[in-house]
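Hey team,

Filing this mostly as a record. A colleague (T.K.) asked me to run one chain through the structure pipeline before their review meeting, and I want the input and output archived in the tracker in case anyone asks later how it was produced. No errors, nothing strange. Just documentation.

Input sequence:
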Amino acid sequence: MTEINLPEPIAAYFDADKRGGDAVARCFTNRAVVKDEGRTYSGSEAIKAWKTAASAKYSYVAEPFAVDQSAGLFIVTSRLTGNFPGSPVDLRHLIFGGPVLSGPARFLWKNEIVEHDYAWILTFTREDLRDELTREAEKESAEAICMISFTPFDGSPAFQALLEEAFNGRETLPEPRYKDAVAALAFVASSEIPNRTISSWGDLSRVQPQDETR
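Output structure:
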């Protein structure tokens, strides 16, 4: 099976999956939710019990073989092989990615004020991809209502060009590669700063820098 590069948290989950309920539970927060076989497991203790019961009932191996990133979401497809009916099967794991803002939130729900921690994922998409994004989010959401919303985007011409370039030809582009790199400070001479940022009034036919360090 083709080897793929998974983001570290996702790779950690698949490694923990081989070692039992305790290891799997440590991959999740107390507010995490797992959906499996039509049931929902909320919180690390419930997830631990779910994994422990599944491991006792079946022996299986999960091998991830594809990963897609679209509109702030990671979708990992793995082949599940074991002593269960219908083996082997392909499973899709949906993991949120991109910038995340989190903190306490307050909602009016069934005429009650409910408070809990809330994560808001900010990402960008194209107008023609709204329905596809909504379907994917609602299919994987564990909530009664998937609170996905869209706001018209009015960015600088250079930013608009960057987004168009990122989505252009998405149907035929090869699978994105993960860059093996870390963030680092860059010291730039003051005289070079005016030439580092692309002008919104310049040539926007290609806006992603060719510099390998950027």
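Quick notes for T.K.: The CA atoms of residues 68 and 175 lie 7 Å apart. Residues 154-214 form one domain.
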